[in-house]
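Review form for a predicted model. The reviewer records the input and the model, then writes brief findings.
Reviewer: anonymous (R2)
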Amino acid sequence: MRVALISLLLAACAHGKGPSQALDRYGLALKNHDFGQAYDLMSSQFRAKVSKDDYVRMMRDNPREVDETADRLRGKHGNLEVSAEFEYGLGDQMRLVQEDGTWRVSSNPLAFYDQTSPKAALRSFLRAYRLERWDIMLRFVPNAYREKMDATKMKAQFTGGSKDQIETLMNTLEANVDEPIVERGNDARMAYGDRYEVKFVKEDGVWKLKDLD
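Model under review:
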C-alpha cells in the first residue's frame, strides 16, 4: 500500500508514531465511529480547513464508506512506502520517497515543461517566458498559428514595443496561476484578474495556450 505524508501521517508522526501505527489508530477510530478521535489524528493544516463538526457530519453521512475504509486500513497495510510532496516555484511539486531510512527524490527531474494538463502547460509556459526560452514557447502555440511563428518572431513579440504591457500581463497571470480551470473536452478556460481569461486547447495529446487575455 502506498501512503503519502498526508494530514493523517503528519499528525501521527508529530506524536512519535510511525505510519503503520497511525493507520491502525485511525482505522480503529473509524471502526468504533469515534469520529472525534479520528479528527484529532488529522494534521493542524487539515483541521484549519475542515472543522470538527463538518468532519463528523461527513463521516456520519457516509457510514458504509467509513466502515469499508476502516476494514481496509486496520492491519492490512503491509509494507508502506512513505512519501512526501512539497510545492515550490510556480506551484511545481517535488515528490520524495523514503528508502532504507534515507529520503530520495522520485519526481522526474527532466519534466521542466510539462503539458499533460492545462495547469501544467500554463506553469511551463511561464517558466519558458521567465527563462527567455523562445524556442520552448513555440511548443505552446496551437497548430493553426504554429507555421507562422519561429523563435525569432516569438522573441520579438514578447520583447518588442509592447514589452511593458506584456510583462504586466504575465505578472498578473503568474499571480493567479492557481485559479480554477474549467475543462470541456479538448478545450479549457481559466478566468483571472478582473477581466482576463486564458484559453487552452489540447492538440496532439498535449495542452497549448490559445489566448492569454
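Findings: Residues 1-16 have pLDDT under 50 and may be disordered.
Further findings: Residues 2-83 form one domain.
Recommendation: see findings above.
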